[in-house]
Amino acid sequence: MHNELANYINSQVSDANAVANIAEVGDSSISVSSSKIFDVCKVLKDGEYEYNVLEVITGCDYLEENKIEVSYIIASFTKNTELILKTALDRGGDLKVDSVVSLWSSANFLERETFDMLGVQFEGHPDHRRILCPEDWEGFPLRKDYVPAESYRDMTINPVHKMNIGEREFGAKHAHIKGASTSVKNYAVDAQDENEELNN
Amino acid sequence: MSTIFEQENLKTDLLTINMGPQHPATHGVLRVEIKTDSEIVAEATPYLGYLHRCMEKHCEHLDYRGVIPFTDRMDYLAAMNMEWGYALTVEKMLGTEVPERAQYIRTIVCELQRVASHLMFFGTYAIDLGAFSPFLYAFQDREFILRIFEEISGARLLYNYIWLGGVWNDISDSQLKRIEGFLGELEENINKYHTLVGENKIFIGRTANIGVVSKEMAYDYGATGPVLRASGVDWDLRKKQPYGIYDKFDFDVIVGEGLKGQVGDCWDRYYVRMLEMHESIKILRQCLDGIEEGPIMGKVSKIVKVPKGEIYLKTECPRGELGYHLISDGGKTPYRVKVKSSCFTHVSMLPELAPGQMIADFVATIGSIDIVLGEVDR
Questions:
Q1: Do the strands A19-21 and A67-76 form a parallel or antiparallel pair, or are they unpaired?
Q2: pLDDT (0 to 100) of residue A189
Q3: B340 φ, ψ to 5°?
Q4: CA distance B345 to chain A (A)
Q5: Of B5, B101, B125, B225, which sits most exposed with the smallest number of CB within 10 A?
Q6: Which CATH superfamily, name and number, covers A2-149?
Q7: What's the predicted TM-score (pTM) here?
Q8: How confident is the model over B229-267, as pLDDT tens digits?
Q9: Domains and CATH numbers, chain B
Q10: Touching check for B316 and chain A: CB below 8 Å?
């Protein structure tokens, strides 16, 4: 289905460069070039495939490959189909894509969230602001190189006197004893356990 | 004859009011900045983020099992459904087979949770509209469900009960019997509540023809769940894309018909939820008949490593569709988890629904889309 759809997109939109990524595990997707995302969405919405609902706009930061991938998950509630549409943006570039608010109103909040979390700019968005973080927040939390802020305005984030340091120290102290603390046992990931798993 | 404003050469202006964040009618910490012309709302802008914990960032630093308690804290009124969605997503990537009994238990707890959540809606919605006693009625029945959950999972609201591969604790025959007894009682009670509240003339006057979401608008805004069905769309994931063991059960999809006004008004959204509780009872009865002895935990390796790839999986929760978009790089922690929250998209409908409404009707509209801010802000 994805190959067929990629051919359809290429035939309708010139320079879309639609490529189907067929996955063995999980879901397949289609990636298109970032400059044509609006046209591709328009074709998919109004064309014969009838993707009438935009469910999610999300992004993922790939630090090593130096790109940010923006995913549009669209669905057709009339034909009961679903598609993950992707576009990659150069991390060093200006991170801009066209807004699709004029096609689906649900894009309004979703694009604002993606901007808030990853710093992707949506050109032509009617109300381009942060949505979950405060207006004057610095940095984009879901980027992989984000360093958690230590203070916001005159407030300290996670002040030392409010952190439960005793429990952490206890956990670290007893981490080598097997079964000493359930929380340590469940979450400690060490090489020994891994070998056991392979033997099983 | 000229009015007093013209005689005195007075100007009228819009008044800006903040509804929230601490306002009982917004069901949590939603702030809506409304511009009003006397009692009529001219413009409404929602401000979110008062409960934002960036759960998605937390997930990137936890192993796959450790994410489950965080999913509870999104929609704290339907925590079981949140867990099930996440567990299904990871299980599908791992190819884990879940034992039959665990599937049945999952369905039972999730349908009970749906009833509890809709009862909560019923109670709080009546409070929004000025009737206090339905709240107390609803909580009586909800209390039974929470007690059962407390017995099987140890917690009343945030359970961490559904684990990867199954559920962590078995449910006993006596508990199943008590649930069966409760269902008969519940069915009578829901009918009673509906006669008390839903058929009340004042209630109909406050909700019928108010906050109408048309079919086109519902598609445009990506509305799901009861909000979409109340707008007359026959769309239920339990039927359309069955997950778990929903393909075994016989139940109907409730669609709004506009019995008291237009299709997709507040009364329809209320009524769809009331009838959905009856459908849940139907499913629960079939579950109680079909459940058999067996293991409750499938085979999941000690350290969960999800193969490289991505997946988007959605489930039908009480408030709408919940989707998890999981990207894995083959490691022990998820590379990226994106949660698609239905309430988040429903809140984005408010600026379009508000203009022209009275303030009290706007409160009725917010109540009828049944938002939980924990899920909106994540």
A1: unpaired
A2: 44
A3: -90, 115
A4: 6
A5: B5
A6: NADH:ubiquinone oxidoreductase Nqo5 subunit (3.30.460.80)
A7: 0.85
A8: 998 888 888 888 888 888 888 888 888 888 888 888 889
A9: 11-377 (1.10.645.10)
A10: no
